[in-house]
## 1
Amino acid sequence: MSFVSYLINGISLGSVYAIIALGYTMVYGIAKMLNFAHGDVIMIGAYVVLLAVTGAGMPPVVAVLIAVVFCTILGVAIERIAYRPLRNASSSLAVLITAIGVSYLLQNVALLIFGANTKSFTSVVSVPAIKLADGQLTISGETIVTIISCIVIMVGLTLFIRKTKAGQAMRAVSEDKGAAQLMGINVNATIALTFAIGSALAAVAGALLCSAYPTLTPYTGAMPGIKAFVAAVFGGIGSIPGAMIGGILLGVIEIFGKAYISSQIADAIVFGVLIVVLIVKPTGIFGKNIQEKV
Amino acid sequence: MKKMNKITRNNLITYLMVIGIYIVAQVLVMTGSISSLLKGLLVPLCAYVILAVSLNLTVGILGELSLGHAGFMCVGAFTSAFFSKCMVEVIPTAGVRYFLALLIGAVCAGICGILIGIPVLRLKGDYLAIVTLAFGEIIKNVVNILFIGKDSAGFHFSTKDSLSLGLEEGGKIIINGPQGITGTPKDSTFTVGVILILITLFIVQNLIYSRSGRAIMAIRDNRIAAESIGINITKYKLMAFSISAALAGVAGVIYAHNLATLTAQPKNFGYNMSIMILVFVVLGGIGNIRGSILAAIVLTLLPELLRGLNDYRMLIYAVVLIIMMLFNWSPKAVEWREKYTAKLRSSRKKNTKEAA
């Protein structure tokens, strides 16, 4: 039974990674940049939820909605202030370093406002746990909600990108920015929309992550953010189903590593996966091989 | 005196600058006009300068971003501290022992650089940043679960705890997991550190202006064009990256041989340290070796001199990164600067004409 419960825990953690990885993969696919600050937006989202629930006494659902709105605004603001001025910069290093700067800024602002102390987080999920196999196997409410919201988000996002005008614009921009602009697509607005969606997902992920692991510090988001990027690379960066599968696989690998090998080395195993994937199949599971234009 | 060419003169200025700073610092120490706190910072400062120069080789000359520089430093620190602690009775001469420790630290870090570089340098840009970051975390994790002890039967390894090493009576623990290595001989001095800085500068500056250095810079400027004229991209990238890693290992050796207890914590060998080095490089000017040295010195000493600044130090680092990048690389800022300097130049010309 312990194997099955590890598997379920892994899928649950993996679903959170998948939601974060979706944000990463969309931004990477469209703006062609690595948004290092994505993980820290998760942390900010979680703090907003915490403040809204314990500080203002709001019901959890409202708190999550507030966090989503806040993170969306934050994400768009980051894009506008820090990333957009560098979009046509001659050095790709510049954007990368700015993104690291933004990540560091968010962490340290949170550190100054909320302090370095670990805050305990009360779960925003009120779904009761399910007991299976005569009570030997318990699936917590957090796990159920996480997995379901992950599926809903993936289906919703796929439909949005396939069926709507804005989604079509996104695909066009990711294909070729210049050509998209010639066709009358507002590239700036499309990229801002991508950041908005990514950051909104980050807020949801923050609430789910802290419900499952109820502690919160200014560094909470950094590690899951990096692991979600590993998941996005694993699944093939730029691909939505890739981010989902990559995220879930990574979550399962991490939980199994913790359970069967050593809890301290689990992170190293996750990063080992990244290096192996890059050696064996750099484009990931669902990635396409892009020929470079000269 | 024969007329020197521009490159030699430029290099010479850098060496003289380091020597000048060294003399000033030594005079201040001799006259006792600096606090013991600052005196304690001198040796780590040498390590930071070497780290900044070596990271500038990766970021400025090779044009790739490495976020695991602290990881290479960690490799150098732990391998050399391990060596020194084992050899403290076998080789009693501090100088010989320290020299060998330096070699071991540099070689081990360099090998790690090659191992990480091979899979990643074939890929483009952003991956290197994330993989080096991952590598740094792996190293930190591995060191924290490593237990090594030694008794008459030889070395014992474990990944659980010090008891499971199964040491005989009188055996001693060398690496004690999260507690790290204690009792490394304190072989690092400020003078040795400065000599190592000069050697680092010699290696890096000669590399930059050599044939290989020009190939590396050609790859940075245009990968495809460089490839098309027959430059072996992987070879040169790997060369720059592993030299940079080996030098970071040297910095680790200096750092380790200055501490009573060496532990792998996020503070000294984690992401934060890598970012700090990156800030030195960015503030000093990407690709500007002399700038890296000055930035490392200023940013290490400033928070110590202005105590109140210490709480905001990290915040300032973050803002420095963002503003420097926006100012230097944003197409609009570049355009504005060019216009401004053009205006300045033309007005100056006018003035000289009027004066004439």
## 2
Amino acid sequence: MASLEELAQAVLDGDETQVVELTKSLLTSGVSPKDVIDKGLMAGIDKVGELFKNNEMFVPEVLLSAAALKAGMELVLKESQQGAEVTTKGTVVMGTVEGDLHDIGKNLVCMMLESNGFKVYDLGVDVKPDKFIEAVKQYQPDIVGMSALLTTTMVNMKTTIDALAAAGLRDKVKILVGGAPVNQKFADEIGADGYAPDAAAAVEVCRKCLAG
Amino acid sequence: MLIVGELINSSRKSIAQALEARDEAYLKDLAKKQAEAGAHIIDINCAIFMEKEPEVMEWLVGIIQEAVDVPLCIDTPNVAAMEVGLSRHKGRAMINSISAEKKRWEEMLPLVSKYKPMVIALCIDDAGMPNSVEDRLRVADKLIPGLVEAGISEEDIYLDPLIKPLGVSGTAAVEVLETTRALREKYPKVHVISGLSNVSHGLPVRKVLNRAFAVMCAEAGMDALIADPLDRHLMSLVFAAEALAGRDKHCLNYIKASRAGKVVAE
């Protein structure tokens, strides 16, 4: 019989086929969807996050693990009537700001947040302020996360915050920023509520935001 | 191969701190080291300072030009910072960058016309990041006539095909190589430049990928790199690759560089 440990390992290996098979097998044999997610899929992706942080795993591997995780999650939610059992810790709208096409970091943060129980709406890359505004209205998130990997586009984080303020939405959400050239000082200057230097820290900052 | 030394960039933490502290000695030293190692141009970027960027840029251009004789590459999308950088620069500067995005084009073009710098032009327009050789050529076909019309000769245009990380797209490097060949064919006088290290983002032992890619770029006809001139192996390979690609007559540059200790095997 398939085990949750094997499922976690399959996520770690980035083996999508294996993840789908094991997930099916576990659900069929009566393991609860919650356990499949928490002790299988998420246990695997947590390990991925840890290894990535320590430079023991690299971007292409992480992307494969993320794809495997996604396939497993979709299967659980589809095949289980108890998808609602998965509690949401909070809702996050996430995007790479206008002009910036680099989404590795943003994708990692989305993945880490999802694996930690947040509901994430990923708006993708090159997200214009209007699109952030629209998403905040539609999804009413607790948090808006923005990434920029270039010094040339980080300024658009401020533009987006200003646009949210102008639309009267600034006080309805917490705004967190991240990306290679971004630091705490910059986050303070542009009026963000928080900054995280890496994907693991982003989860902590999101938790703190909702607690406080 | 024209080398634009990339190290004075405010997205690097040590540089952000040095700029914050106005650490003149540190920044001058880094500029000198890059020029001594073979950088023909020194890139300067202080974009992290936002509203204060023009002020920091003015100071930075001043102190770096006190330290080195090579031209500077004013690296900013901020028009005010670009203007102050160009106006403060003695001699002819390079700018990084203009693109075919409507807003950036319209804002930067007057500065290009006024100062006539060497120009790095990104192969991107409002349709977004290019995904194919055709995308890049289409943008180049807009950029080159536009810049020539603004008074820039083709010899002073450096087209950047824009490298994506290999770790995300397996064909990222090949696309750039094919674009380089196509551009050199169509516009033999125009230069092709790349930010070399973008190719290795997210992968282990990045320098090895950067070095291998530099050799491949040289073969494809790229003739300028934004790179780390303090990587001696990279610089050695660039001299070797240029000779092997038939762009170093009688291998004289290679020999000269080896005499000067700039080509090393270990």
